[in-house]
Design goal:
By secondary structure, this protein is mainly α. It has 13 helices and no strands. It folds into two domains: 53 residues, no CATH class; 210 residues, MetI-like (MetI-like fold). It is globular.
Length: 278
Amino acid sequence: MRVSSRANTVLVNLVTWSLVIVISFPLIWMVVTSLRPQTELFKIPPTLIPRSITFEHYAKLLWETPFLRYFANSMLLATSTTIVVVAIGTLGAYSLVRFSYRGRELLAGLILFTYLLPSVVLLIPLYLMMVKLGLANTLTSLVIAYTTFALPYALWLLRSFMAGVPEDLESAALVDGASRMGAFFDVILPQALPGIISTALFTFILAWNEYLYALVMVNADDVRPLTTGVMNMLITSFNIEWSLLMAASVMMSIPLIIIFAFLQSYLTRGFGAGGVKG
């Protein structure tokens, strides 16, 4: 039985690592290509390990192109969208769960219906609205646009976490003299922390990677985010700067990797974090 159990364990590990390698191979090739000298870029047959490693592509990308400006625009855009969506979504989800008013379920259904609509359906109306408001070619217009299709999902995700918080905890806080908002911040938010972090992560990734709205609504080069800025900078009708494109892709992935690594431990830390009375 021990031999059979060990054989099963080895087989499972082998299959798991094989899948990890297959899934990770495009990322590995992206990193290797970004470090490969220009002379080895189109070498046939291609080799996984380059003969020499160079960081010239990263240096050129950072100091000879407007990449850092695009990077700052994307960071500001994604952070602003996340803050707006999480702030409104948290309060809205709390309202849908804790308060009884006419049309509450209808409102929840309409929110879900809005999320089910393809984002491209809202593109032209939102663009015309931004033009009328004088917000065209600004990051503010993208924050508003991203909020329209990130907020419905955030509301539904946070609604389930808010519903999972026992009402007795909130009632106990209210009996002890806490205000409604005090109980919300001291009891509800700590309990719903995993959902809030998940929602923030989803919203940040959505705003960081979005391409279509940024392409249509922003044409000024000084306010382009990374997705459209890198495309406009490195991909033309006559040439594609593959080495710089791979270096840019690596740089664009770093913030998401850092955020995942940092927030992973917080996804479970919020459970029970408001249930103990101080």
